[in-house]
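Students often ask why inverse folding is considered easier than folding. One informal answer: many sequences map to the same fold, so there is more than one right answer. In these notes we will look at a single instance of the problem. The structure comes first.
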C-alpha cells in the first residue's frame, strides 16, 4: 500500500488538515516488537507500512457472515489462534491507525491435537497444515465486492464495539474504508489467476505464482505450483543445502529476504532489525519431538533400515542430502517445476533494491532430498502434500489414498500423519477439513516409491525410527 507516500505528499502541501491526516494515517506510534523471540516470531511486525485496519477486521466476520465458508469467526480459515483478538501470523501495530500486517508465522506456524477433542497445541515454525489461505483471500475479495463494504455499514458495526474519536471516525468514513475497498478490489483483480487453478485447500498455497503474477506483475503462464508449507525450524542447519521444494536456491539469506519481499509486496517499509530477530529464531528453533509413545528398541532397529534405504538422500551427511534428485528419478508430480521458468528466475535475479538481491536463483529439474527433522509435523508428505501419512508413503503409489481430508488436527499415530479420513461433516464446529483429490493438476501422488518393497517387520521398524526424526 502506498498510503504513506500519499499522505507525505498531502503533508507537503502544509496546513492543519495535513497534520491531522499524517497523525491518523501514517504516524508510526507503535511497532510490534516482543522481547521473547517466540512471541516476536508469532506477532512481530516486518513492515512499517500501514496494515489492514484492525477495527474493520474485527467486524468483518459478523458483517459478512453469509460469505464465510461455514458459520463462525476468523477461525474458520484455520488460523492458529491464541485468543488475542487476532491470530498468530499477524502483527498488530499502529501506523497512523491500528492495523494488522502478516508475518512469516502465518504460513509457518502449525498445531495438532494431542488427543481427540483436546485443544490444538500451537507449534511455531511448523507448517500451517490447517490454514486455508485461498479461502481467506476469497472471503476478503468477495466482501470488498459486496455493497455492504461501505463506510456506513462498517462504521455502524465498528462503533457498536469500539469507541472512535470524532476525527478518527471521520477518517475511517472518508479515507480509510474507501481506500481499503479500492485496494482489496485491485488485489482481487490481480488474483484472478487463482480462479483457473484447483483450489489449494488447507495447508497449501501457490506462493510463487502469487509472487510472479501479483507482486512482480509478470504474465500468467498457467503453471500450477501449489505446494505444502514447509517448516522453518533448524534453519542454521540448512546453510549450503538447497532450498525450496525444487532446490531453486542454496542461499538461506536470499531466500528469507525473497519471502519478505513477497509478503511486504516490495521493499517499502521493510523493518530490517525486526526481521533479523525472526531469522535468529528460525535459525536455532529446534524441531519439536514426537509427543506420542515410541518403542525405542524398534526405532533402533529402524535406524539401520533407514541408513540403508534412505540415508544417502535423507541422513545428515548422506552424499545426496539436501541436493536435488531429478524428477525423472524420484517420479513425483512434475507440475511445480514448470512454474520456475527462466523468465521468472531472470526477473528475480534482476532485482537490486537495498538488501533485496537474489543472484543465486536457478531453474532445476527435480526436487530436494529434504531434511526430515520434525517429520511427524511435516505431514501430509511430498512437495504437494499428496500423501497423508508415512504408512501411505511407504506403500506403492497405486495403493495410496486418492481422496483424503486435509486440515484435521487430530493425529494418526498408527500411520503417522494427521487424521486423513474424510469422515464427519466438515461444517460442524471443531471438525473442519478440505478434500484433497489427487486427480487434479499438480496434485498427483505418484513417485517416491522408496522402501515400499521392504518386508513388513523392517517397514514397522523404519516407521518407528522416523517418529524420532
Ligand atoms: C502465504 C504463505 C507464506 C508466508 C506468509 C510465508 N511463506 Fe515461506 N513458504 C511458503 C510456501 C508455500 C513455501 C514452499 C514453496 C517453496 O519454497 O518451494 C515456502 C517456503 C519457504 C522457504 C523455503 C524453505 C525450504 O525448506 O526450502 C523459506 C526459507 C521461507 N518460506 C521463509 C519464509 C519467511 C522468512 C517468511 C516471512 C518473511 C515466509 N516464508 C512467509 C508460504 C509462505
Ligand atoms: C534418491 C533419493 C531419495 C531416497 C533414496 C529417498 N528419498 Fe525421500 N525424498 C526424496 C525427494 C527428492 C523428496 C521430495 C520429493 C517431492 O517432494 O516431490 C523426498 C521426500 C520425502 C519425504 C517427504 C518430506 C516432506 O516434508 O514432505 C519423506 C517422508 C521421505 N522422503 C522419506 C523417505 C524414506 C523413509 C526413504 C527410504 C525408505 C526415502 N525417503 C528415500 C528423495 C529420496
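Output (designed amino acids):
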Amino acid at each position: 500500500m502506498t498510503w504513506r507516500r500519499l499522505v507525505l505528499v498531502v503533508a507537503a502541501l502544509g496546513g492543519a488538515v495535513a497534520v491531522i491526516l499524517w497523525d491518523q494515517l501514517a504516524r508510526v506510534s507503535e511497532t510490534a516488537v516482543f522481547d521473547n523471540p517466540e512471541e516476536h516470531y508469532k506477532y512481530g511486525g516486518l513492515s512499517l507500512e500501514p496494515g489492514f485496519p484492525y477495527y474493520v477486521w474485527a467486524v468483518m466476520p459478523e458483517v459478512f457472515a453469509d460469505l464465510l465458508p461455514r458459520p463462525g469467526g476468523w477461525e474458520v480459515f484455520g488460523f492458529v489462534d491464541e485468543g488475542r483478538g487476532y491470530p498468530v501470523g499477524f502483527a498488530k501495530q499502529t501506523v497512523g491507525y491500528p492495523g494488522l500486517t502478516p508475518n512469516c508465522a502465518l504460513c509457518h506456524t502449525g498445531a495438532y491435537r494431542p488427543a481427540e477433542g483436546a485443544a490444538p497445541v500451537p507449534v511455531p515454525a511448523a507448517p500451517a497444515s490447517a490454514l486455508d489461505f485461498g479461502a481467506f483471500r476469497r472471503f476478503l475479495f468477495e466482501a470488498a465486492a459486496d455493497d455492504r463494504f461501505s463506510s456506513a455499514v462498517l462504521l455502524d458495526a465498528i462503533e457498536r464495539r469500539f469507541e472512535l474519536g470524532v476525527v478518527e471516525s471521520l477518517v475511517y468514513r472518508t479515507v480509510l474504508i474507501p481506500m481499503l475497498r479500492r485496494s482489496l478490489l485491485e488485489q482481487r483483480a490481480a488474483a484472478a489467476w487463482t480462479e483457473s487453478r484447483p483450489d489449494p485447500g488447507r495447508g497449501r498455497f501457490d506462493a510463487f505464482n502469487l509472487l510472479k503474477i501479483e507482486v512482480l506483475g509478470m504474465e500468467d503462464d498457467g503453471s500450477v505450483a501449489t505446494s505444502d508449507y514447509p517448516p522453518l525450524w533448524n534453519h542454521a542447519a540448512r546453510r549450503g543445502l538447497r532450498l525450496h521444494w525444487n532446490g531453486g536456491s542454496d542461499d538461506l539469506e536470499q531466500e528469507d529476504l525473497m519471502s519478505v519481499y513477497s509478503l511486504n509486496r516490495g521493499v517499502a517499509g521493510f523493518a530490517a532489525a525486526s526481521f533479523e530477530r525472526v531469522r535468529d529464531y528460525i535459525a536455532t528453533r529446534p524441531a519439536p519431538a514426537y509427543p506420542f509413545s515410541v518403542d525405542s528398541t524398534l526405532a533402533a532397529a529402524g535406524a539401520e533400515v533407514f541408513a540403508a534405504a534412505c540415508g544417502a538422500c535423507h541422513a545428515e551427511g548422506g552424499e545426496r542430502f539436501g541436493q536435488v534428485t531429478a524428477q525423472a528419478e524420484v517420479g513425483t508430480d512434475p507440475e511445480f517445476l514448470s512454474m520456475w521458468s527462466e523468465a521468472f528466475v531472470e526477473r528475480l535475479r534482476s532485482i537490486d533494491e537495498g538488501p533485496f538481491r537474489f543472484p543465486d536463483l536457478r531453474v532445476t529439474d527435480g526436487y530436494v532430498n529434504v531434511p526430515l527433522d520434525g517429520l511427524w509435523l511435516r505431514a501430509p508428505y511430498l512437495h504437494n502434500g499428496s500423501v497423508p501419512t508415512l504408512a501411505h508413503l511407504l506403500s506403492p503409489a497405486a495403493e495410496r489414498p486418492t481422496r483424503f481430508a486435509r486440515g484435521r488436527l487430530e493425529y494418526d499415530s498408527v500411520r503417522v500423519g494427521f487424521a486423513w479420513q474424510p469422515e464427519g461433516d466438515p461444517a460442524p464446529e471443531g471438525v473442519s477439513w478440505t478434500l484433497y483429490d489427487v486427480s487434479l493438476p499438480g496434485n498427483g501422488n505418484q513417485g517416491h516409491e522408496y522402501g515400499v518393497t521392504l518386508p513388513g517387520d523392517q517397514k514397522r521398524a523404519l516407521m518407528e525410527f522416523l517418529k524420532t526424526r
